Amino acid sequence: MKKKSLVLLLLVITTGSLMGCAEKKTTSAPVVITAAEAKDMMDKNPGITILDVRTASEFQSGHIKGALLIPYDEINVKAESMLKDKSAPILVYCRSGRRSAIAAQALTDLGYSKVYDFGGIADWTYETVTE
């Protein structure tokens, strides 16, 4: 009887240890902010990454100065080669907010830890450029 109890105890301890060692993959959600909050972050950190996830033609028609273009449907393919630092803040926008939400979540799923979705350029009342 003692042997069975000892074996059972060892089994419980081993199972508990293995479960504790299992990798827990938790994904956080991107932070949704306003265009004004994004502008404030840009002003306070001029080197911050600004990511436009619209199409190339939309980007050429006007974008936020300094923005990088990665269309939202190419995030999973291009992000890791273009955005090396996964701990650096990234501000994401599109035209209306739908694609930026998809792209921001994809970035978070890829392991980027400071992703801020400020919706669409339609809400951006500040300067844009076409160059």
UniProtKB/TrEMBL annotation:
Residues 44-130 form the Rhodanese domain. SUPFAM superfamilies: Rhodanese/Cell cycle control phosphatase. GO terms for molecular function: transferase activity. PROSITE patterns: PROKAR_LIPOPROTEIN, RHODANESE_3. Residues 1-19 form the signal peptide. The keyword Transferase applies. Keywords: Signal, Transferase. Transmembrane segments: none annotated. It holds the Pfam family Rhodanese. InterPro entries: GlpE_sulfurtransferase, Rhodanese-like_dom, Rhodanese-like_dom_sf. It comes from the Bacteria. This is Rhodanese-related sulfurtransferase. It comes from Anaerobium acetethylicum.
